[in-house]
Design goal:
five-stranded antiparallel sheet, alpha+beta, SH3 type barrels
């Protein structure tokens, strides 16, 4: 007789692999993260629980931001596309103290991190949101502490600020989330940026 818990977990995991079963990047989908009401918190989830936690947030009607990007890989003769969290292990949500306390009951959270500088954190997340809405192919990037701070001066990424790095012969703009010590980057043409003061 099969283990019920194992079977239930397997089915849940398999369902999340379908594109249609992925949670939206932003909930509610018709809003921008700057419209959310309440305090921002960072949920450090248990391993590979980001999407399931996002579904828990939807069921509780709690606003969240889960930046994700497509990863394409080849296996034998097949191409496999996976929508993966940009910041592995982290989901950002906005709510009140009661909602925060309730999220411990999901059993998907390893830690809930308080955001001390709400304005700075929201500004950093808005840059990630804008890049995703522009269709920019963000990829996880090693967090950079030093480098040239630049601003995008044209195109759909206009106004974004980050550190410019060169990776495999291409210029990339690194968008940092200081509180997490993590970042994401997008390819950028050198003519589209200027040094920020």
């Amino acid at each position: 007789m099969p283990n019920f818990n194992f079977a239930k977990t397997f089915v849940r995991t398999k369902k999340l692999l379908k594109v249609s079963e992925n949670p939206p990047i932003i909930w509610p989908e018709d809003q921008s993260i700057c419209d959310f009401q309440g305090e921002w918190w960072v949920a450090h989830t248990k391993s590979r629980n980001e999407k399931a936690f996002a579904h828990d947030l939807i069921r509780r009607n709690i606003c969240y931001f889960l930046p994700m990007s497509w990863k394409v890989r080849r296996k034998s003769r097949r191409t496999i596309r996976s929508l993966l969290p940009l910041f592995s292990g982290y989901v950002f949500f906005c709510g009140n103290e009661d909602e925060r306390s309730e999220l411990w009951r999901t059993d998907r959270v390893a830690n809930l991190i308080e955001v001390r500088d709400q304005q700075k954190f929201l500004k950093e997340l808005q840059q990630i949101e804008q890049a995703l809405q522009a269709g920019a192919p963000l990829i996880p990037h090693k967090y950079v502490k030093i480098g040239q701070q630049c601003r995008v001066i044209a195109g759909p990424l206009l106004g974004l600020q980050g550190i410019v790095v060169s990776t495999r012969g291409t210029m990339r703009l690194v968008l940092q989330v200081d509180m997490l010590g993590q970042a994401a980057s997008v390819e950028i043409d050198i003519d589209m940026i200027e040094v920020a003061d």
